[in-house]
């Protein structure tokens, strides 16, 4: 009995310990998910690596011919930017390549990787003002190859244009939502920005090439942005808020324009069609001479020619037939009260004009009749 009591006590203690460990794990996970606002990773300084690098490492990349003029102009700025992190850069216009390599003063081992990304972006037609941002700690780049995702060239061009949008509006919306710089050039899409934004950009680009319109992904990104601002919903699942766009699977089988109607099955074969000899025997042509047959054929041909000629003449005459004009309508003058002259009013005007010339006062207006009705002027 005592042994059973000890076992039950031990089991209870184990359960308590398990509960406490689970609670600790939950609290630890919540602490890991929340990052304090304004926190930045400390910058890598020379004091962290005073001895420098053991060996020299270098990267090279080719650039197209049309980028040669731009790289010549901005090359002093590139050398200045890379010189600040002690990276040596060389531009070879004969081979069409850019090479970056470390020096004895280079202390940051990751600086050569950033320099490699910089020359890649410059070769992919990204302007220097944007490409130089890769040298910052919180920036990264992603070059997405889209040339081999669609086989048909026309479809590829249409989907690439869909990603850009009318006057670049779709691309601009994507840049604002992801805080990334995106450039669509040839068979590649170059993106530059924070890691979280690059992940979203890659998803949108690949979905667009798979015939999913980018507006769907942009809508979800807008909703996610609003949810992230709410501190209560940060640790919760967002599946109930995000829209679920269903893909319509249309059947690719092409239906024929003319459908064949199956005839009723009959065991007997169809009747044999009449041959030309049978038709001639029925009409009596078989017993005629060859000369008479020729005359008949010539008559038929001439009749057909005459009919065709008459049709053509009728079509030509149609152009010379004048169109039917509408009959001219005669305007009947009706004696209206507006057209008639008011003689009484004209007489009063003449009297007023005479009185003004003579200097006499104008006559007083006549008082209205007792009935309150105005007398009609006789015309």
From TrEMBL:
| GO MF, any single term | RNA binding
Please classify the protein's predominant subcellular localization into one broad category.
Answer: nucleus
**Bias (Basic residues) ranges:** 245-262
Q: List the residue ranges of the region (Disordered).
A: 1-46, 244-379
Which residue ranges does the record assign to the K Homology domain? 140-210
Q: Where is the signal peptide?
A: none
Where composition is biased (Basic and acidic residues), the residues are 7-29, 276-293, 300-348
Q: Which UniProt keywords apply?
A: Nucleus, Ribonucleoprotein, Ribosome biogenesis, RNA-binding, rRNA processing
Q: Which domain of life is it from?
A: Eukaryota
Record-linked InterPro entries: KH_dom, KH_dom_type_1_sf, KRR1-like_KH1, KRR1-like_KH1_euk, KRR1-like_KH2, KRR1-like_KH2_euk, rRNA_assembly_KRR1
Q: What does this protein do?
A: Required for 40S ribosome biogenesis. Involved in nucleolar processing of pre-18S ribosomal RNA and ribosome assembly.
**What PANTHER family would the database entry show?**
HIV-1 REV BINDING PROTEIN 2, 3, KRR1 SMALL SUBUNIT PROCESSOME COMPONENT HOMOLOG
Name it: KRR1 small subunit processome component
Q: Name its species.
A: Pygocentrus nattereri
């Amino acid at each position: 009995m005592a042994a059973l009591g000890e076992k039950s006590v031990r089991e209870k203690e184990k359960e308590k310990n398990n509960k406490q460990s689970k609670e600790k794990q939950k609290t630890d996970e919540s602490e890991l998910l929340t990052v304090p606002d304004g926190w930045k990773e400390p910058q890598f300084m020379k004091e962290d690596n005073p001895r420098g690098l053991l060996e020299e490492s270098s990267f090279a990349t080719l650039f197209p011919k049309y980028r040669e003029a731009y790289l010549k102009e901005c090359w002093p700025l590139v050398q200045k930017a890379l010189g600040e992190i002690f990276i040596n850069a060389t531009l070879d216009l004969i081979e069409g390549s850019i090479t970056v390599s470390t020096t004895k003063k280079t202390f940051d081992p990751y600086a050569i990787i950033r320099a490699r990304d910089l020359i890649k972006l410059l070769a992919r037609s990204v302007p220097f003002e944007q490409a130089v941002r890769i040298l910052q700690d919180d920036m990264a780049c992603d070059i997405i190859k889209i040339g081999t995702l669609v086989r048909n060239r026309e479809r590829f061009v249409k989907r690439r244009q869909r990603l850009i949008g009318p006057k670049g509006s779709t691309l601009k919306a994507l840049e604002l939502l992801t805080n990334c710089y995106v450039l669509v050039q040839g068979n590649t899409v170059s993106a530059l920005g924070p890691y979280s934004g690059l992940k979203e950009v890659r998803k949108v680009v690949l979905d667009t090439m798979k015939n999913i319109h980018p507006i769907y992904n942009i809508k979800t990104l807008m909703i996610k942005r609003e949810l992230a601002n709410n501190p209560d919903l940060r640790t919760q699942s967002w599946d109930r808020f995000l829209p679920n766009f269903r893909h319509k699977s249309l059947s690719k089988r092409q239906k024929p324009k003319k459908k064949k109607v199956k005839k009723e099955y009959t065991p007997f074969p169809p009747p044999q069609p009449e041959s030309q000899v049978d038709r001639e025997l029925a009409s009596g042509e078989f017993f005629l001479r060859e000369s008479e047959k020729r005359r008949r054929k010539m008559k038929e041909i001439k009749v057909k020619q005459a009919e065709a000629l008459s049709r053509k003449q009728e079509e030509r005459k149609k152009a010379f037939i004048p169109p039917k004009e509408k009959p001219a309508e005669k305007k009947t003058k009706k004696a209206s009260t507006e057209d008639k002259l008011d003689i009484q009013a004209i007489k009063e005007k003449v009297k007023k004009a005479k009185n003004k010339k003579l200097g006499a006062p104008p006559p007083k207006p006549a008082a209205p009749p007792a009935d309150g009705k105005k007398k009609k002027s006789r015309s």
